[in-house]
């Protein structure tokens, strides 16, 4: 089940193509306006995937951290995985989201400002007792990395000291799938394959990282170490 905690700026429903099926939302559930099962929306394509949408007309102060914790405790009795979509920033909405989490995925891009934000988030999570953290590097441009115009994944992992979960290529299929409300995994693209690999790793499977470029590169050697010294890994 996925929970959109970005109250006032919900978008998971649009990305999933479920925006026309919303009757109740997160705020309705925690305030007792409806039962949890009334607000959950079943995905059109995947029978075991559900969405709890955020509220569009409320603000983040409509919900409190202890309410989210109670909600996730209830959901954990029935669902194997609870994915909480956290709003941007480190305000009240962020505190709501992490209240129900026991692990975190930090998403960053290969830019100094984004890395600074990621490092700040890492510190806050640790202070809140969330020790299990993994890193996704988004919008990777292999051509720029090769020309040394973009930080490499190796540089980023060294700076943040967070276990790498996945690399997402800067891929137009991400925009296309989001606008159409279709799963990125349906597209034959590098980004789509990267998402599939990330889900496999989250399930505990040892999945190789995709190649960025030729096997003589620094990146190949770095990710070979991460993946058990295999020469065909990134």
Provide the gyration radius in Å. Answer: 19 Å
Please name the CATH topology of the largest domain.
Answer: Rossmann fold
Any idea of the CATH class of the largest domain? Alpha Beta
Along the chain, the helix and strand elements come as: EHHHEEHEHEHEHHEHHH
CATH superfamily of the largest domain: P-loop containing nucleotide triphosphate hydrolases
Largest sheet properties: 4 strands, mixed
Low-confidence stretches: 228-234
Discrete helix count: 11
Q: What is the overall silhouette?
A: globular
- β-strand number: 7
End-to-end gap: 31 Å
Helix content: 25-40%
Quote the average pLDDT. 88
* Structural class designation: alpha/beta
Brief descriptors of the model:
single chain; 234 residues; alpha/beta; Rossmann fold; 2 domains; four-stranded mixed β-sheet; three-stranded parallel β-sheet; 11 helices; 13% strand; globular; disordered C terminus
Describe the structure.
This protein starts with a strand and ends in an 8-residue tail after the last helix. It has helices spanning 12-15, 26-30, 36-39, 65-75, 92-99, 112-127, 142-146, 153-160, 172-180, 190-202, 218-226, and strands at 2-4, 41-42, 50-52, 83-85, 104-108, 133-140, 163-169. The longest helix is centred in the middle third of the chain and has 16 residues, at 112-127. The protein is of the alpha/beta class and 234 residues long. Mean pLDDT is 88; it is low at 228-234. The radius of gyration is 19 Å and the shape is globular. Helices cover 39% and strands 13% of the residues. The strands form 2 sheets. The protein has a 4-stranded mixed sheet. A 3-stranded parallel sheet has the order 5-6-7. The protein has 2 domains: 1-101, P-loop containing nucleotide triphosphate hydrolases (Rossmann fold, 3-Layer(aba) Sandwich), CATH 3.40.50; 120-234, Rossmann fold (3-Layer(aba) Sandwich). It has 11 helices and 7 strands.
């Amino acid at each position: 089940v996925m929970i959109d905690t970005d109250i006032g700026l919900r978008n998971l429903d649009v990305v999933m193509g479920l925006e026309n099926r919303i009757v109740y939302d997160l705020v309705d559930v925690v305030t007792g306006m409806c039962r949890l099962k009334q607000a959950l929306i079943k995905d059109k394509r995947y029978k075991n995937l559900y969405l709890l949408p955020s509220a569009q007309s409320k603000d983040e102060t409509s919900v409190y951290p202890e309410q989210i914790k109670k909600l996730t405790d209830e959901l954990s009795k029935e669902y194997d995985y609870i994915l909480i979509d956290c709003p941007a920033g480190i305000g009240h909405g962020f505190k709501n989201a992490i209240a129900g989490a026991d692990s975190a995925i930090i998403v960053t891009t290969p830019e100094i400002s984004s890395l600074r934000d990621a490092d700040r988030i890492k510190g806050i999570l640790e202070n809140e007792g969330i020790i299990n953290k993994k890193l996704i590097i988004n919008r990777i441009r292999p051509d720029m990395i090769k020309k040394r115009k973009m930080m490499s994944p190796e540089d980023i992992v060294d700076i943040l000291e967070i276990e790498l979960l996945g690399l997402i290529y800067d891929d137009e299929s991400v925009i296309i799938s989001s606008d159409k409300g279709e799963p990125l995994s349906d597209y034959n693209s590098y980004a789509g394959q990267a998402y599939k690999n990330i889900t496999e790793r989250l399930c505990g499977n040892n999945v190789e990282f995709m190649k960025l470029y030729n096997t003589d590169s620094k990146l190949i050697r770095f990710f070979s170490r991460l993946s058990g010294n295999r020469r065909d890994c990134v």
